[in-house]
Write the structure tokens for this entry.
Amino acid sequence: MTGRTGFPSKRDAWLVLFIWAGAILAVVGAVAQFDSRAPLLVRALLLVVLLAAAAFMLWVLYGTAYAVGRDELLVRCGPFRFKVRLGDIESVTPSRNPLSSPACSLDRLHIRLRGSRVGLLVSPEDKRGFLAALVERCPHLALAGDRVVGRGPTSGGASRGA
């Protein structure tokens, strides 16, 4: 993991409460089912499924992070991993899009990717640091306030102040 800069996901308080409530309900359900008259195998299976669901929810909540490497962006969201070539990033803009994504906050960044109609939504806690790390490793990108834009012939012709 040398040469990577890591950024944990920002976590909205409402989402943290929602996920913790779901995890607690799953654990309570797992414990409560011991009083049922279901066969032992069914109770054991239900216990495993409910505890796994609680663990999965918390893993996604606390295991969502982003790492900017030399030539790729690694996105982790619990057990899921995504790799994005830095050369495929066309722009990064602020977003509050609620679509499902590897982001634990609605304070997001929309990463527009070459060849993708959807792109990727992320929510790094340190948005400025994340954008700076991308620009540092991507010569085809430039920081423009709270966003990253492509530079070059397709970004509007003559440049204003370098």
In short: Residues 154-162 have pLDDT under 50 and may be disordered.
